[in-house]
Amino acid sequence: MGLATQNLGRVDYLPTYEAMQAFTATRTAETPDALWICEHPPVYTQGLAGKAEHIFNPADIPVVQTNRGGQVTYHGPGQVVAYPLLDLKRAGYFVKEYVYRIEEAVIRTLAAFGVTGHRVGGAPGIYVRLEDPGSHAMLPQRPSKDHHSATSPDFTGLGKIAALGIKVSRNCTYHGVALNVAMDLEPFSRINPCGYSGLQTVDLSTIGVSVGWTEAADVLSHKLANYLAP
């Protein structure tokens, strides 16, 4: 029973969020897992830990409160958003492993386009070296056994290319990951992305990779289906 992938195209955020909640609330042990791939019109979404002061100037962009983990992020055209709706109990792994697998799928997607994605200790999501996006050199600030979450994440020389925010209810996941492909990045400058001031957000086009939304969405959905398999 693989992931049933559905490409929803461009859909409004709020009804999609409500549909994820409904899917999760009504699913049974027999319900097949799903992967929804989509793109949203401009919207800021606040996680449970979100603080109002991290949004300085939403202007005409709506702000939606959600029940996912994490802080504020921005969704907009030119970004591939993936929502895995998974039964973790059936998959046989826990939340920490789930997050790791999603990040791995993003890293492999970036690799397909010649870009090296990195993890940063204490800060979920995937980052790239701004000076040399293809560099395989390991980051000094990568996660490690002795990394203490008390220390602030170090984003020196990095740009964030994928944001992660999840919710697990009765062992079932919703919300997911957003990969920046070719966006208007200006709305990110009106927030502290994921609660970090001065964290630069990038997309594939900014770092010199020209790829269409559909191609990026196809690669990401294949990698997610592979890496999230039981």
Radius of gyration: 17 Å
Task: State the major sheet.
Answer: 8 strands, mixed
- Helix and strand run: EHEEEEEHHEEEEEH
Helix content: 10-25%
Mean pLDDT: 94
The SS-based structural class is: alpha/beta
What CATH architecture do you see? 2-Layer Sandwich
**Portion in beta strands:** 25-35%
Q: Between the first and last Cα atoms, what is the distance in angstroms?
A: 10 Å
- Looking at the structure, the CATH topology is BirA Bifunctional Protein, domain 2
Strands, count: 11
Number of domains: 1
Overall geometry comes to globular
- Low-pLDDT runs: none
- CATH homology group: Bira Bifunctional Protein, Domain 2
| Assigned CATH class | Alpha Beta
User: Helix count, per DSSP?
Assistant: 4
Secondary structure layout:
Layout: E1 4-10, H1 13-26, E2 34-39, E3 43-46, E4 63-65, E5 73-75, E6 79-85, H2 88-91, H3 95-112, E7 118-120, E8 123-129, E9 158-169, E10 172-180, E11 200-201, H4 213-227
Parallel strand pairs: 1-2, 3-4, 9-11
Antiparallel strand pairs: 2-6, 3-5, 6-10, 7-8, 8-9, 9-10
